[in-house]
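Q: Could you fold this chain for me?
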Amino acid sequence: MKYQYLLILLSVFIVCILSCYTSDPNKAADGLDAIERNTDHSIAPIVAQKYTDTTYISAYSEIYSQSVLKTIPLTIILSIRSGSFTDTTIINKITYYDTDGKIVKEYLKKPVRLKPMQSIDYIVAIPKTTEGIPTNRGGTGAHFIVDWGAKYNTQPIMQCIMHGSHGSNSVSFMVPGKSISTRNIK
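A: Sure. Below is the predicted structure, expressed as C-alpha cells.
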C-alpha cells in the first residue's frame, strides 16, 4: 500500500515536471533547429550585398476580445519567402520586439542564405505558465525587424501569420511586411 502511494506521487511529480517544460517550436524531433539545419550558412562576402533592406513586420501575440481587459493569445509564424527565380537573398538579422520596443529574441546566430524560391519560417509559440495558463509574448504591438541584403533587389516576401482559438472560435490573419530602410551600396 505504501508503495502504491509512492508510485502515484512519483507519477504526479513526473507529469508536473514534463508539463512545465516549454519546447522550442522551431526544434525538430532530433533537437536541432529545423530552419537552421535546412539553411545554407556559407554566405558570400558582405560586399556582394549591393542592395540592403530593413523590413518591418507587425506581429500580434494577442488581440483584444470585447475589451482592453480581455485578450486572445495567438501563435505567430514569421514567413520569409524568396521572390527571385535566380538570385540569392542573405538574411542578416531577425529581431522580435515586444509592444514596448524591447527585444524579446534574436533569431539568427549568423546570416543565412535564402536560395532562389526557398522559404523559411520562424514560430513564436504561446508560452504558458506552470499552471498551463497562456501568457503574453510580445503583445498587441509586437513586431519583427528583418535586415537582409542581396546583389539585386530580390524582393523577398515577408509576412506574419497569426492563429489562435477562444472557446469554439478560431482567429487567423496575415500581415505583410513593409520596407522601412533601403540602401544601394556602390
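A (continued): The two ends are 80 Å apart (CA to CA).
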